[in-house]
């Protein structure tokens, strides 16, 4: 019996090569640790090379096979070099996790055009360019798993975040579009839609708009914001053989927010 096809083998990622963009970020860091703990080798790619190296060094200290790269997901040559590095290092690329993303809150009437364009570019175009580059090496091998970072903001709306909400809706639809285009190639494309997750960045936003975030917290039926560690399992599921029949799916990890 092939252990990879049985429980718990279907959850393992031994011998797999992974890239995580925005890899120095708050949600990416515990996911990267989860990848190496599951047996994968990892490129931690971030526009902020120091953050990437900090995480990669932590992974190596934990016994993982990891390296850091400075990569802006909007720079196609850097994105192509990131994918090529995985192929040069490990001869393959199995997993791409696109966490590079972000937004800027502000009411629609005064929302600045450049900020709007920048948020759309980072979340939609950046995600697309990384998917495209990864699929160029995954499709010929007939295997690949891509996990994009959407948000509940891609599934529902709330005031004060027009660009982020539009862009995460775009991530949801790019995920579905690529999933069906590549469905017969062996490359699966899914998205994760976190609710509000308690990171340092979110803590800064909460201190700026405490009343808005109190109301937002109350809308999570589970009664609290999520912790970064609580995103790891759902992402690893989508990276593993346990989800071999799952593609084009948006997995809400949101304390029940979108069940309402
Ligand atoms: N924290 C939350 O509550 C939450 C909720 C839902 C969705 N998300 C999404 O999860 C993802 C990660 O969020 P986070 O809270 O960890 O944010 P974070 O700011 O901690 O991490 C984002 C990382 O992306 C990097 N980055 C930014 N622009 C980049 C670019 N052009 N190229 C490469 N790297 C770039 C940053 O340097 C940073 O390390 C984002 O897509 C975010 O929209 C977060």
Which term fits the overall shape?
A: globular
Which hetero ligands occur in this complex? nicotinamide-adenine-dinucleotide
Report the count of strand segments: 7
What share of residues is helical? 40-55%
Could you give me the name of the CATH homologous superfamily? NAD(P)-binding Rossmann-like Domain
Please give the largest β-sheet: 7 strands, parallel
The side-by-side strand order for the widest beta sheet comes to 3-2-1-4-5-6-7
Report how far apart the termini are. 43 Å
Low-confidence stretches: none
Structural domain count? 1
Helical element count? 8
Structure keywords:
Rossmann fold, binds nicotinamide-adenine-dinucleotide, 260 residues, alpha/beta, single chain
Set down the secondary structure blueprint.
Elements: E1 17-21, H1 28-37, E2 41-46, H2 49-61, E3 66-70, H3 76-90, E4 95-98, H4 113-141, E5 144-149, H5 162-181, E6 187-194, H6 200-208, H7 210-218, H8 232-239, E7 250-253
Parallel strand pairs: 1-2, 1-4, 2-3, 4-5, 5-6, 6-7
Helix pairs in contact: 1-8, 3-4, 4-5, 6-7
The structure holds nicotinamide-adenine-dinucleotide.
The site of nicotinamide-adenine-dinucleotide has 29 residues, from helix 4 and helix 6.
């Amino acid at each position: 019996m092939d252990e990879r096809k049985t429980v718990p083998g279907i959850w393992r990622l031994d011998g797999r090569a992974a890239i995580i963009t925005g890899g120095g970020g708050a949600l990416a860091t515990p996911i990267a640790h989860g990848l190496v703990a599951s047996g994968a080798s990892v490129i931690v790619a971030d526009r902020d090379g120091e953050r990437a190296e900090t995480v990669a060094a932590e992974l190596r200290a934990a016994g993982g096979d990891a390296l850091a790269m400075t990569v802006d997901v909007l720079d196609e040559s850097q994105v192509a070099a990131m994918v090529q590095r995985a192929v040069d290092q490990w001869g393959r690329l199995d997993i791409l996790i696109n966490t590079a993303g972000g937004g800027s809150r502000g009411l629609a009437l005064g929302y600045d055009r450049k900020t709007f364009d920048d948020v759309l570019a980072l979340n939609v175009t950046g995600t697309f360019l990384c998917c495209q580059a990864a699929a160029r090496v995954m499709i010929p091998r007939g295997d690949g798993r891509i996990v994009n970072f959407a948000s509940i903001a891609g599934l529902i709306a709330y005031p004060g975040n027009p660009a982020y909400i539009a862009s995460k809706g775009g991530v949801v639809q790019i995920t579905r579009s690529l999933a069906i285009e590549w469905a017969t190639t062996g490359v699966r494309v899914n998205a994760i839609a976190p609710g509000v997750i308690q990171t340092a960045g979110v803590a800064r936003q909460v201190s700026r708009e405490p009343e808005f975030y109190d109301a937002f917290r109350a809308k999570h039926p589970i009664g609290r914001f999520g912790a970064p560690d609580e995103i790891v399992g759902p992402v690893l599921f989508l990276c593993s053989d346990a989800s071999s029949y799952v593609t084009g799916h948006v997995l809400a990890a949101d304390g029940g927010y979108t069940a309402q």
